[in-house]
Amino acid sequence: MPPKRHLTARRLRLGAELRKLREATGMKAREAAALLGADAVQMSQIESGVAGVSAERVRRLAAHYACTDEALIEALTTMATDRTRGWWEDYRGVLPPVFLDVAEVEHHAAFLREVVITHVPGLLQTADYARAVYTYMVPGLPESELAPRVEHRMRRRTVIEGETPTPYETLIHEFALRIRVADRQASHAQLRQILDQIEQGHVTVRIIPTDQDGFAGAGASMMYTGGRVPRLDTGLRDAPTGTAFIDEEAQLAQLRTLFHKVEKATLDPVASRDFIHRLTKEM
Predict the structure, then answer these.
(1) Using the 8-state DSSP alphabet, how is residue 125 labeled?
(2) What is the per-residue pLDDT for 5?
(3) Residue 248: which residues within 8 A CB-CB, separation 6 or more?
(4) Model pTM?
(5) How many angstroms separate the CA atoms of 247 and 50, rounded?
(6) DSSP-assigned states of every residue in 54-73
(7) By the 8 A CB rule, do 220 and 76 touch?
(8) Cα-Cα end-to-end distance for the chain
(9) DSSP 202-231
(10) CA–CA distance, 17 with 247 (Å, rounded to integer)
């Protein structure tokens, strides 16, 4: 298949998983390429996501790699053949690619778990809240760039608001709810938005209170997305160079441990809902 123009997070992940399967056998790239009637350059393009790969080739490679995990193979073939154009593609060339990659990963997730300390999670933000954050973080951003950022953030919410919402659990620090990124009215509306999502029944919110002893997780912010099979889970964390997409099992295990550790410092969902109710009365 010819090289693809856009390197999406999903295509990069497919290539990375095929490389992991090959490396687990000790097979060289040129040896795997020969099995497909290709060369080492073509194999490199497949494993780096530059070139697409057919379902038949994915199955052939899996067989040669002695992979017997049928659920994983099916998931990989789906990744290889899914040509659905997601809504995020409307922003190709308008927003930085990472915006599209995050939305794509969320769209294909079986579940979503998130820890946020300083801001309300993007999936729960109102337009006014999102606009205030972008305006502050990128001073002087023209309306022509600000508007699509806010619009994109609002459209991301479809993953938890659609006909088949993805299960979403978020752990939010009390500070994130109290900080007024805009004004009192916007803060009140933001809290109401969170309560509305909770009442829909597909979002679980747990609050980390400021008076919680032994909480040293100020740097714990992250998102963890469940794949079609556990091996395809993905972690997202902010890094100095931008959002980092994590797919190595050792690192994913650390994120799972971190999430559950933070979870122990939270109020239960009912107490968290009541806590937010009380905050709305203070705003």
Answers:
(1) -
(2) 55
(3) none
(4) 0.91
(5) 18
(6) -HHHHHHHHHHTT---HHHH
(7) no
(8) 57
(9) SEEEEEE-TT-TT---TT--EEEE--SSGG
(10) 9
